[in-house]
Amino acid sequence: MKEKKQRPILIKNKRAIFDFELIDTYIAGIVLVGTEIKSLREGKGSLVDSFCFFNNGELWVKNMYIAEYFYGSYNNHTARRDRKLLLTKRELRKMQQALKINGMTIVPVKLFINDRGYAKVEVAVARGKKQYDKRASIKEREDKRSMDRAMKR
Q1: What pLDDT sits at residue 1?
Q2: Which residues are bridge partners to 85 per DSSP?
Q3: Are 65 and 45 spatial neighbours (Cβ–Cβ below 8 Å)?
Q4: Partners of residue 112 on adjacent β-strands
Q5: Minimal CA–CA distance to 11: which of 32, 36, 42, 35?
Q6: CA-to-CA distance for 115 and 10, rounded, in angstroms?
Q7: Which of 41, 31, 22 is nearest to 113 (CA)?
Q8: CA 51, CA 33: separation in Å to the nearest integer?
Q9: Which of 10, 59, 96, 138 has the greatest count of CB atoms below 10 A from its CB?
Q10: Other Cβ atoms closer than 10 A to 22
Q11: Residue ranges of the chain with per-residue pLDDT less than 50
Q12: Entry pTM
Protein backbone atom coordinates (compact mmCIF):
# COMPACT_ATOMS: atom_id res chain seq x y z
CA MET A 1 0.00 0.00 0.00
CA LYS A 2 1.47 3.35 -1.08
CA GLU A 3 1.09 6.37 1.12
CA LYS A 4 0.05 9.57 -0.56
CA LYS A 5 2.79 12.13 0.03
CA GLN A 6 1.43 15.59 0.70
CA ARG A 7 3.31 18.67 -0.34
CA PRO A 8 3.98 21.04 2.55
CA ILE A 9 1.62 23.99 2.91
CA LEU A 10 3.54 27.26 3.11
CA ILE A 11 1.81 30.60 2.61
CA LYS A 12 4.16 33.61 2.64
CA ASN A 13 3.49 37.30 3.07
CA LYS A 14 5.97 38.61 0.50
CA ARG A 15 4.64 42.15 0.81
CA ALA A 16 5.46 42.29 4.53
CA ILE A 17 9.00 41.06 3.88
CA PHE A 18 9.46 43.85 1.31
CA ASP A 19 7.75 46.64 3.30
CA PHE A 20 9.20 45.89 6.74
CA GLU A 21 12.56 45.25 8.32
CA LEU A 22 12.01 42.12 10.45
CA ILE A 23 13.57 42.54 13.90
CA ASP A 24 12.45 39.44 15.82
CA THR A 25 10.35 36.43 14.75
CA TYR A 26 8.13 34.07 16.73
CA ILE A 27 6.23 30.89 15.86
CA ALA A 28 2.64 31.05 17.13
CA GLY A 29 -0.20 28.58 17.12
CA ILE A 30 -3.52 29.76 15.75
CA VAL A 31 -7.07 29.06 16.90
CA LEU A 32 -9.10 27.76 13.94
CA VAL A 33 -12.47 26.12 13.41
CA GLY A 34 -12.81 22.81 11.53
CA THR A 35 -13.55 24.15 8.08
CA GLU A 36 -10.65 26.63 8.30
CA ILE A 37 -8.00 23.96 8.81
CA LYS A 38 -9.47 21.88 5.98
CA SER A 39 -9.29 24.86 3.66
CA LEU A 40 -5.70 25.60 4.75
CA ARG A 41 -4.67 22.02 4.03
CA GLU A 42 -5.82 22.66 0.46
CA GLY A 43 -3.54 25.73 0.41
CA LYS A 44 -6.32 28.30 0.17
CA GLY A 45 -5.19 31.15 2.37
CA SER A 46 -3.49 34.52 2.14
CA LEU A 47 -1.64 36.85 4.49
CA VAL A 48 -1.76 39.93 2.26
CA ASP A 49 -2.86 43.07 4.18
CA SER A 50 -3.03 41.17 7.47
CA PHE A 51 -1.62 42.51 10.74
CA CYS A 52 -1.53 41.62 14.42
CA PHE A 53 -2.86 43.57 17.40
CA PHE A 54 -3.20 43.13 21.16
CA ASN A 55 -6.60 42.88 22.83
CA ASN A 56 -6.79 42.26 26.59
CA GLY A 57 -3.21 40.93 26.65
CA GLU A 58 -3.89 38.45 23.83
CA LEU A 59 -2.44 38.62 20.33
CA TRP A 60 -4.91 38.52 17.44
CA VAL A 61 -4.41 38.51 13.69
CA LYS A 62 -6.79 40.65 11.66
CA ASN A 63 -7.69 40.49 7.97
CA MET A 64 -6.08 37.09 7.32
CA TYR A 65 -7.90 35.37 4.46
CA ILE A 66 -8.81 31.69 4.62
CA ALA A 67 -11.16 30.69 1.80
CA GLU A 68 -14.44 29.04 2.67
CA TYR A 69 -14.25 25.25 2.55
CA PHE A 70 -15.96 23.91 -0.58
CA TYR A 71 -17.76 21.09 1.24
CA GLY A 72 -18.53 23.23 4.30
CA SER A 73 -22.35 23.59 3.96
CA TYR A 74 -24.14 25.62 6.66
CA ASN A 75 -21.37 25.55 9.28
CA ASN A 76 -18.72 27.19 7.09
CA HIS A 77 -16.52 29.95 8.51
CA THR A 78 -16.29 33.60 7.49
CA ALA A 79 -13.23 34.22 5.35
CA ARG A 80 -11.71 37.28 7.08
CA ARG A 81 -12.53 36.94 10.77
CA ASP A 82 -10.13 37.83 13.61
CA ARG A 83 -8.16 34.81 14.81
CA LYS A 84 -6.37 34.40 18.13
CA LEU A 85 -2.66 33.57 18.16
CA LEU A 86 -1.18 31.32 20.83
CA LEU A 87 2.13 32.39 22.39
CA THR A 88 3.70 32.10 25.81
CA LYS A 89 3.28 34.94 28.33
CA ARG A 90 6.99 35.75 28.12
CA GLU A 91 6.82 36.09 24.32
CA LEU A 92 3.68 38.25 24.55
CA ARG A 93 5.37 40.51 27.12
CA LYS A 94 8.45 40.92 24.91
CA MET A 95 6.28 41.80 21.93
CA GLN A 96 4.28 44.37 23.89
CA GLN A 97 7.52 45.99 25.08
CA ALA A 98 8.76 46.14 21.48
CA LEU A 99 5.52 47.79 20.34
CA LYS A 100 6.08 50.69 22.74
CA ILE A 101 9.01 51.79 20.57
CA ASN A 102 7.82 54.23 17.92
CA GLY A 103 7.42 52.77 14.42
CA MET A 104 7.27 49.10 15.46
CA THR A 105 4.48 46.74 14.46
CA ILE A 106 3.71 43.02 14.40
CA VAL A 107 3.08 41.36 11.04
CA PRO A 108 2.40 37.74 10.09
CA VAL A 109 5.13 36.52 7.74
CA LYS A 110 4.39 32.83 7.08
CA LEU A 111 1.49 30.43 7.58
CA PHE A 112 2.33 26.75 7.54
CA ILE A 113 1.27 23.34 8.81
CA ASN A 114 3.94 21.64 10.91
CA ASP A 115 4.84 17.95 10.87
CA ARG A 116 2.31 17.19 13.62
CA GLY A 117 -0.52 18.65 11.54
CA TYR A 118 -1.00 21.90 13.46
CA ALA A 119 -1.39 25.26 11.72
CA LYS A 120 1.31 27.71 12.78
CA VAL A 121 1.93 31.37 11.98
CA GLU A 122 5.34 32.99 11.99
CA VAL A 123 4.90 36.55 13.24
CA ALA A 124 7.60 39.20 13.31
CA VAL A 125 8.17 42.38 15.24
CA ALA A 126 9.02 44.76 12.43
CA ARG A 127 9.89 48.34 11.59
CA GLY A 128 8.64 49.95 8.41
CA LYS A 129 11.20 50.53 5.68
CA LYS A 130 11.79 53.91 4.11
CA GLN A 131 11.56 54.32 0.33
CA TYR A 132 15.34 54.30 -0.12
CA ASP A 133 15.58 51.04 1.90
CA LYS A 134 13.09 49.43 -0.49
CA ARG A 135 15.14 50.57 -3.49
CA ALA A 136 18.25 49.08 -1.91
CA SER A 137 16.41 45.76 -1.38
CA ILE A 138 15.37 45.69 -5.04
CA LYS A 139 18.94 46.44 -6.16
CA GLU A 140 20.37 43.66 -3.95
CA ARG A 141 17.84 41.17 -5.31
CA GLU A 142 18.60 42.10 -8.93
CA ASP A 143 22.36 41.91 -8.32
CA LYS A 144 21.98 38.46 -6.78
CA ARG A 145 19.93 37.28 -9.76
CA SER A 146 22.49 38.55 -12.26
CA MET A 147 25.32 36.87 -10.33
CA ASP A 148 23.41 33.58 -10.29
CA ARG A 149 22.86 33.82 -14.04
CA ALA A 150 26.56 34.52 -14.62
CA MET A 151 27.53 31.50 -12.50
CA LYS A 152 25.25 29.16 -14.48
CA ARG A 153 26.86 30.11 -17.79
Answers
A1: 53
A2: 30, 59
A3: yes
A4: 10, 120
A5: 42
A6: 12
A7: 41
A8: 20
A9: 59
A10: 15
A11: none
A12: 0.79
